[in-house]
Specification:
Spore Coat Polysaccharide Biosynthesis Protein SpsA, Chain A; 15% strand; alpha/beta; 13 helices; 3 domains; single chain; five-stranded mixed sheet; Serine Threonine Protein Phosphatase 5, Tetratricopeptide repeat; four-stranded mixed sheet; 381 residues
Length: 381
């Protein structure tokens, strides 16, 4: 059985920063039977010039942007001439052997099953997150199209519930995405755009958990932290059996920890663990991380309270003419240690220097003896 031919579909607008590396990575793996299709939606930078000057073999088209990502992806489908279509974004780089691995799995599936299927590559975001559920590879047989003007997803035979599509994750097809490394103004611009489009989809599908979840997520930079928290809490009442509950739990717990609401975060952590007992497929690594982070926050809150108590006690000692502690160095020692634990390194160092002058050895001194600069290797700092 010959290797399946693939149309690589790329939509872009003002991607002069990334379009060259995106195409280069594809061309290192592409075969003569494959093709690259690019649809530009209104670039005003050097994107078009880069494509024309360096990639003349690419099929380049233009289409006006009408606030609908699915419209562009579906337009690419109409242009595609190969057996399968693989959508790669302009700010992504497919890693070595990714295209070959995709073809290998396509061949295996075609031999084993006639089911409707969409393949999801592994997307590594450079903000330290991994996405597995973006359907990017579909068969070019006229049955598939994309739905949704934002956070679009492939459907088969117009079934928006995607119940008739088998989703297969391709661990060995890896793409690196750095589109989230924008400055805060860019993030807000994207948030405004996505929030507007999510609202548009919610008006069309008011009972759709997908678009309510994405509305909460995308609108975060535009909402007060209180409104963001409430929008996530409301999700559980509106969609108690949603497939997005895992993501909402993690986002909510993270939001609560960020606000220092450790007790409420612990409540949802326990609730989430209970919910997970009935789950057979979910990886709980994110929840483990947030559970530990919440415990650390509680420890830090305790340390801050202890620091306040120790400072007040030390001040009382210094003002007490009948004090039983001669100089209060033992209190200084613990105060310095707490400063260090809470990240106030400069104050901890000043206290240690003071204790060093009087030759007081305690917890803080023991800590400092373990540090690289006391071992004669300053290059380790």
């Amino acid at each position: 059985m010959n290797s399946p031919s693939i149309s690589i579909g790329i939509m872009c607008k003002n991607e002069e920063r990334s379009i060259e590396r995106c195409i280069n990575a594809i061309q290192l793996q592409i075969e003569n039977t494959d093709e690259i299709i690019i649809v530009d939606t209104g670039s005003t930078d050097q994107t078009i010039n880069i494509i024309k000057e360096k990639f003349s073999e690419v099929r380049l088209y233009f289409k006006d942007w009408r606030n609908d990502f699915s419209e562009i992806r579906n337009f690419i489908i109409t242009l595609s001439k190969k057996e399968w279509i693989f959508f790669i974004d302009a700010d992504e780089v497919i890693q070595s052997e990714g295209l070959n691995n995709a073809k290998k799995y396509i061949k295996e599936i075609e031999k084993l099953s006639d089911e409707a299927v969409v393949f999801c590559p592994k997307v590594l975001n450079t903000n330290d997150s991994i996405v597995y559920n973006t359907g990017r590879i579909i068969k070019n047989n006229g049955l598939y199209k994309f739905c949704g003007c934002v956070h679009e997803f492939p459907v088969c035979e117009d079934n928006i519930n995607t119940d008739n599509i088998k989703t297969i994750i391709l661990e060995e097809v890896v793409m690196v995405h750095d589109g989230y490394e924008e400055n805060i103004m860019e993030e807000k611009r994207k948030s405004k755009r996505n929030t507007f489009l999510n609202e548009k989809m919610l008006k069309k599908y008011p009972d759709n958990d997908r678009y309510y979840y994405f509305y909460c997520r995308d609108a975060k930079p535009l909402l007060s932290i209180t409104d963001y928290e409430l929008s996530l809490i409301n999700f559980f009442d509106l969609f108690p059996t949603s497939r997005f509950k895992n993501e909402v739990y993690l986002d909510l717990i993270s939001c609560l920890i960020e606000q220092g609401k450790t007790d409420l975060a612990e409540t949802y952590i326990k609730e989430y663990w209970e919910d997970l007992k009935n789950s057979e497929t979910f990886s709980n690594t994110g929840l483990v991380y947030l559970t530990v982070l919440n415990e650390i926050q509680k420890i830090m809150a305790t340390q801050q309270e202890l620091l306040r108590i120790m400072i007040n006690t030390k001040n009382n000692i210094e003002n007490d003419s009948y004090r039983t502690v001669e100089n209060g160095y033992n209190f200084d020692d613990i105060i310095g240690f707490l400063y260090w634990s809470l990240g106030d390194i400069s104050r901890a160092i000043k206290i240690e220097q003071k204790l060093e002058e009087v030759n007081y050895k305690g917890m803080l001194n023991e800590l400092f003896q373990l540090l690289p600069w006391n071992k004669g290797d300053e290059n380790e700092l």
